[in-house]
């Protein structure tokens, strides 16, 4: 009976513990592989931790298929850089102007989830307390989000983080004004710290090549300002000039050497284009690239592209917007070259800074140099960046122009060359021809970053690209002018219907891929 | 060592048998004089018992003056006092009221008289589980229980099984709870695929489940509790119904050794049909080239699988204790080359009684170890079937079989040899030999129970059990595997998963009478369940990161750590108190009242972690209350209303930063919106039923109607991109899913002759399912499987049945003509509903025949209504390998009724142009939807019981020829619609290169010593 008593005692205890003990529920319900927000505050990781996702998702580095949908099957193609041999969705997709919502949503979502949110989060935690982090987050935010407004037009910007169910959109003009102001704040803050000789607290967090160097970040902010300034030159030339001259006149200036250029240096991820091209065979050299690089016999070709496996020793591009019977038609044309088989992803080149200044000089702005000198410096910087030789001869070439495109398998895709400018500067030429030269060289130098090249194409119309042969836009996008923007995505319409409506109201046109953005006027370049 | 133990036990018991001196013998027959095998004989007041053999012979040790009790299910129990005679022959009469004393095992292992049940419970005897043995015991219940839908996974032998009782009711989980001897079992698998394309983490693979690991020979029966009322005592885990397994109990006073051996041969049945008339153009992946005969290599790819299950069981019982031991070995080779399974089951069970039998102690332990090589996957990645089916015709398949790798002098290694570099179709023999996978599962279940009978009305019992499941998945992907799937140096993927469950309860059982007319019994108890599922460590060298040295598959050889991570599916603790009471009046009217309160850890931070739910039920025995005609033996009506609460996903209410593979931002992905909170799901069900038996119990039927609604489902909505919390999804409660249906079970002893008997049973069930409400802010829909880049999507849509299959259709005009574009291509719709995965009704028809020593059983299983989609057929069409494309080319094109925008009518289209647009995984998949209606000969067995007299030392022996999935009497789809790509909630009603269904035929040998 003693045993019986023990048993009874045990029963009572277990009964009590069973019904009375919910105190450790929160512990049990906390994922042991997770890290609580409180725990993250150690070492200020709650602030610093937000930077890595921003760096890694301006262009999505992983997984590769997200990059493909974010950029690879949209602006990388609309910029004329690349083409896909794959007939996704029966060949009726972004490349043939039937914009695929299920793809383009990744561009929007990744920007907001990883760039915009973290900028907002860092701002909340650092503004007024650790302003160097706030300043750096602003630069990255502008770098990441100008791509989004340049894709959609009106977007959520100043009202981000609002607890309301409807988050109103800003017009693109408002977004640009805020971005200029944010660059002002960032540049002032960091310049002050450089002047004070303050050591950087950003070293371990910096995933660019700058190693946390505030001065280098200021140069990047200035160059970014120059890029944004040039973008609005047709819609607001006065502000464009002011902002551009401000950037160049800043005491740290803009990019001048290739050590300055802005790139993500990933300890882990290779440029996703390497996999998309090399393993998936989903992206190839474009017909436009073939026409221009072949025409100029451009020494950079070998780093940009691989030779075709179907036509050994040759660079073969694929025309966009053609009828695709099977992937095998063009999958063995030229893949993307060694430039993408790298863990360094360049988002802004030094050459671009020179070409922007060249264009500014052409427009009569004070850019500390003549248009010709800056143009030639830009080409040299690009050759230098790519390890290509023969820049002098290339710059002097006043003979070679783009060549006709020939599709060896499907002659219906052939086209005569559309671009007729040579490389060599011609002081006697019209501004329009000079601009075409500048933008064509800028286009070549910027490869493979398609977002900026697409924006330049929309702004200037250069280089001239082969039109699509299949246009499934249902009349919303013209074959002549191509895709001007992306329509708002379905998920955003569902989650923030009122916001989307406010955006469309500020768009001044229907929510289609054919509507021009605020800075994309139909007016002449000069 | 085990063998020595076994031999020792045999010798020992043989000696015990020799020591017995005086026996009473006799023959037990039924009212017609037919010998009754398996009738039981007990010496009243003692623990001695015996059962009759196949000739009705029994032997029992007894003394003069003792009373022998003879009983047999369905017959009147007889008692006879032992006199001087040593032979007592007994003729047993049909019982007029046996249904009244029948006992059913219910929740928590509590036995109840069938008559008092207020809800539907259907039983299967152990014989049904092993007659046509399957390596997974739960596959053998298909077609045998009304209202239970059994769908096998496409994972081949050792794969998991989806069991849905009374329709899908939850967004997150519809699988029932399995309970062994009253203790809930953790039926955790290491995951199910839900990717239309195929997972890059080793392919779309079936992570298995635990029920597939148990030894069917360990159990003497199964009870299926279908409704919410039956499972209220298990709480949330039992919300989808409960399947109870009862262990074989040792027979007292008798040593028993049973052995069985089953060998079955599986062949691939229902392969897609292929063309043999056209080849691929040089260098092309698709077979749209010249007309040239090419052999059909597909059939020869598949092997004849062999499954051998050998099991042996030993048991010995005495008055005070019993011991049972079992061992089973399963060894199988699959129908795809390189696929094999090895499984070992060990079981031991010990019982003992103390203190004048007041205290009963029982302990059991089961251990299963299973290894599967190259478990079949579905989808397009890592699946050898895509290469087999799609290989460009005109190539010599055998050449690629013999030389799946060739020496690459530039790398100094053996490289894959295949004519194309496509991620969706590698050389199948490379996939088998150089992307080899191994699945290892270990399952341990240990349980202890103590039961103390305090007095004649109160028993207190306490139980504790521990389940532990470990799963290891290991895949070695060699260099030169296609670049989408692997790094150039190869890839190593290893996943190690642990799941555990600790369960403890304490239950007081009260059984008493209040006056002469009233009975009262009650179970009052408390329980605690602590579960951890899929605590995984995943090592993956990755696709872009890769291995430093080619083909060296170890962690230290990884280029970086980017894809290695740890994860947990769930961790929760549920504490409960519950009470279930039954009031009886004159054994004819019963009232059930029960209630349960749970506290769940998953509701931490939601205000309260406590929730309560009740049930009430009434049963009236009409046959006892009024005088019915003589031929009616039993009549009952019953009704019940119950609620079951279900807690929410773990971790949701306590968001943390978390590393997910492929994401570079560790912030929480889901959480409640600021200012909102989460609450448990609630299922309410009412059920009415009636049960009748007549003509001396030779005919019986049971009809049940139920209506259930599950509300407050946990759902996630995509959070607006500008959200303050920074989450991807907000979690919230909403939505409602309704199931209503009817179940009919009919049993008939059609012929009961001296030499020949025929028993038949039919079960019918119809379930109407409706998603009553899904909130606006998620578009009134939830995608259970996202389309990805394919034209298949599986969704819950408000107002529609659970699980709508969506695809893409032709755009048609009012006259039904297909609309074409200017260039002659088809116009397509957006995603729209093209089918529904739910059957309208299910019918099982089972027959057993006895003819002297011969016996036969035939089970027909039918599912009527519902649809399935075949992306396999669609893709085969677009690649020009299917028979349809060959026929179309031979016929000069495909006849269509179409019209161009300018009004030109088009009546025919070139086969290639048609099938490359319509076919394909992303094509016009509405054309690849088939009726899921099918009727199959599910099980057949024909056997012979040996005459005991001719057997030298055996007690019983039987041999039978068995067959499973013998053939379809009717089928529309180009594959077996009873096979699913996943046994989870997604990927239903679709085939994407799943393993073909198999037909198995074999031999079953059973002996007892």
Automatic annotation (TrEMBL), chain A:
InterPro entries: SusD-like, TPR-like_helical_dom_sf. PROSITE patterns: PROKAR_LIPOPROTEIN. SUPFAM superfamilies: TPR-like. It comes from the Bacteria. Pfam families: SusD-like (PF12741). Keywords: Lipoprotein. This is SusD/RagB family nutrient-binding outer membrane lipoprotein.
From TrEMBL, chain B:
It is found in: Cell outer membrane. Residues 410-794 form the TonB-dependent receptor-like beta-barrel domain. It is a multi-pass membrane protein. Transmembrane segments: none annotated. Residues 115-242 form the TonB-dependent receptor plug domain. Belongs to the TonB-dependent receptor family. This is SusC/RagA family TonB-linked outer membrane protein. It comes from Flavobacterium resistens.
